[in-house]
Write a structure and sequence with these properties.
This protein is α/β, with parallel strands linked by helices. The protein has 2 domains: about 160 residues, HAD superfamily/HAD-like (Rossmann fold, 3-Layer(aba) Sandwich), CATH 3.40.50; about 110 residues, Hypothetical Protein, Haloacid Dehalogenase-like Hydrolase, Chain: A, domain 2 (2-Layer Sandwich), CATH 3.30.1240.10. It is built from 10 helices and 17 strands. The strands form 4 sheets. An 8-stranded mixed sheet has the order 6-5-4-3-2-14-15-16, with helices on both faces. Helix 9 links the parallel strand 15 and strand 16.
């Protein structure tokens, strides 16, 4: 039986159940793995502070993958990888979206700063409640005097309008990658940012072969990573195409799927090949 040395776990729909909770069995298992020296790395489209909040709830401390791989921090929260959208492109996209789609609320994420065109937007308020943080109303150009990049844009509008924005922006901004993360959400990151690229960064960070990496996920963005990892495990609640990309399928996030997937595997720390 293979021994694995690194675990990458998606947060929403995977580690968290439909009530945004982590089961006691899952939490205890992850803590045991951490004590054994096996890094339990959380991966998400969320910001660093939002991922950190989940890590604290799980009582684990390991590297975190934020913004779908656009920002990766080690266990001390020093930067391993920083792949944000350059200032010129970021400001041009913001102007493009605001001028052509004024009814769409554009949220900009810079490291752990969340700027929103409309903090009172209903969907923005829902995100603020889920992630337990408040967006700031501010000017992106002013914020970018302090930093050189934007890690993610999240555009919120009606399903029809966000699809129209996606179609237009994909033509105008070929260096960006646009993904619908829900009926009313359109995310934009740098084109070379992906969860699979993030996994390979972690492979390099720990000097591991891919065969020793376990990935557990549920969303379309996880599919490539699940195919390439040593052991890709899809959640039972994942779409069919994501389940088909994985080597195994576990129970759903409401049925302790992460705990069931990991409890029978053998692990050893990365420094003990």
């Amino acid at each position: 039986m293979n021994r694995y040395s690194l675990i990458l776990i998606d947060i929403d729909g995977t580690l968290l159940d439909s009530l945004n909770e982590i089961s006691r069995n899952t939490k205890n298992l992850l803590q045991r793995l951490q004590k054994k020296g096996v890094p339990v790395t959380l991966t998400s489209a969320r910001s660093p502070g939002e991922v950190e909040l989940v890590a604290r709830r799980a009582e684990i401390c390991a590297p975190i993958i934020c913004y779908g791989g656009g920002l990766i921090l080690d266990e001390n929260r020093s930067i391993i990888k920083n792949a944000g959208i350059e200032a010129g492109v970021a400001l041009a996209f913001k102007e493009f979206a605001n001028s052509r789609f004024p009814d769409i609320s554009v949220n900009s994420y810079l490291y752990d700063i969340w700027l929103s065109d409309n903090p009172d937007n209903e969907e923005t308020r829902r995100l603020a409640e889920i992630h337990q943080r408040e967006p700031l109303r501010g000017d992106l150009a002013s914020a970018m005097r302090m930093t050189s990049r934007v890690h993610k844009f999240l555009c919120v509008g009606t399903p029809q309008r966000v699809r129209q924005l996606q179609e237009s922006a994909e033509q105008a901004f070929p260096t960006l990658r646009f993904t619908l993360s829900g009926a009313v959400y359109l995310e934009a990151v740098r084109r070379d940012v992906s969860r699979c690229a993030a996994m390979k960064t972690m492979q390099w960070h720990y000097h591991l072969d891919l065969s020793r990496i376990v990935v557990i996920g549920c969303c379309y963005e996880d599919a490539e990573t699940l195919r390439e990892a040593g052991l890709g495990i899809a959640m039972g609640n994942a779409p069919e195409s994501v389940r088909n990309a994985a080597k195994r399928v576990t129970a759903s996030n409401d049925e302790e799927g992460v705990y069931i997937a990991l409890k029978g595997l053998r692990f050893q720390p990365p420094d003990n090949p």
